[in-house]
Protein 1
Amino acid sequence: MDRRGQAPRGVANTVTMIDDSWYVRDVPLPERVSAGGVVVRIAEGGLLVALVREIDAGEVLQGYVLPKGGVDPHESIEQAALREIDEEAGLTDVTGLGELRVIEHKDHLKKYWAICHYGLYLTAQVESHIKDVEHHFDFGWFPLEAPPEMFWPCERKMLEQERNRVYDLVIARQNPKPRKKFFM
C-alpha cells in the first residue's frame, strides 16, 4: 500500500458527493453504532489533527476522514474508538479528553444508518503504522484550523464548530491546576 496519498493499484476512485440526503432518515435502514476520534497533537503554531484516506466497498473515498469504525458486541464506545484509531491511523499512545459529539447519517452506500460517536484524544506520537491496510492507505497530520478536503462534510463541520472546545480541553489537560474565577 502506498502511504503517499495515492490509492493502491486496481482500486477505483469514487465520485460519491455527500449532500444533505445522507443526513435524512427517510427510509428504514439497519443501524450501525461506530466510534472513533478527533486525535490532535501539539505542534508549533497550534494543533494538528490526524486524518486518514479510506477504501470502502472497493472504492477510494474522495477526501480524508476521521478514524472510526463499528463497535464490536463486547466493546464499549471508548474501547472501540481506541481500537479504530490504532487500526486506521496507527496511533497507539493517545489520551482521552472526553466525548465531542455523536453524528448520525447514512453510510456512503446508503445501506445502513450510522450512529458515530466521536471522542477527543491527545497524543505526542508523530509517526504511525496503519494496520488496516485493506481499507486505509494514507495518514496525515493537518492543521486543525485548515483541514484538507474531507469526504464527510459533517466531520469537517464538527472540526470547525468544536475547534475552541478542542483547544480548551487540550489546554486544561496541559495545565490541570484549578484556576480561580473572579466575577465582578
Protein 2
Amino acid sequence: MKTVNIYTDGACSGNQSEKNKGGWGCVLEYNGHRKELSGAEPDTTNNRMELTALIAGLSALKEKGLELRIFSDSSYLVNCFKNRWYENWQRNGWRTASKAPVENQDLWMRLIALLEGQQPRFFLIKGHLPKEPGEERLNKEYERFLGHNGDFALEDFKTACACNRRCDELATQAAAELKEE
C-alpha cells in the first residue's frame, strides 16, 4: 500500500472578529516527491483554516486506497477523527452532545467524504516548535508526541516538526497576501 504523509496548518489573524483574514498551508510527501499547497479566505476562523488545509491536501490526491499519515497541530481536527466524534454528530443529526449545531459542518462533511476509501492515521503534533528548540525541549516535545500518538521514530518526528513549521509559513504568507489585495 502506498503511504502519503500530509502535514497541515491553519492561521487566522483577528480570529472571530468582524474583519479577519485566514490562511492555510499543506505539504504532501510521497516517495521522495513533495507538493506544497496554500490559500486564504477573509472572514473566517482558525478552525476553518485547519480543516480547509486538510481538505486541500486530500483533494490533491489522485487515488483511493492510500495509507495516509496526517499530521496537524489542531486538536480539534485530530481528536474528531481519533475519537470518532463525527459518528455521534451524524447519528444526532449534526448536533453535539449538548444539542448545539456542529460548527463547520460543511467542512466536516467534505472531509468525511474525502477520507472514504483511504486508510488515514492522525497524529497530533506540537505547533510552532522552533527550528532549533534545543535538545531538552525537543526531547520533551518528542515524549509528549509519543504519549499522544504511540511509537514513532525521532527522525520522523523531526521531519514532522519541520513540515508543520513550513505549513505555518505557507498559511501565514497566504493570509498576508490576502490582506494586500
